[in-house]
Amino acid sequence: MELKITNNCICSQLSVKLSCDGFQTVEEIDPTILSKSGSLCLVNSGEPIYGHSNFSFTYAWSNSFPFKTLLSQVACS
């Protein structure tokens, strides 16, 4: 499965955190891409997802997981 996060804003999004309670994968995901702590997942080590860009990663499970964005910090210059 592939998760694609799209930032449709002109501003960067930092410290993107997703709800991932119950998330499972049979293949390890690089923790700089997605790190899980309890029911929260931090995307891209908290680094920016720049405006009008995508960030994606793949995971291996039989069903897609309903990730939900819980928090991000907006950074505009």
TrEMBL record:
GO terms for biological process: cell fate determination. Keywords: Signal. It holds the Pfam family TPD1_C. It comes from the Eukaryota. This is Uncharacterized protein. It comes from Rosa chinensis.
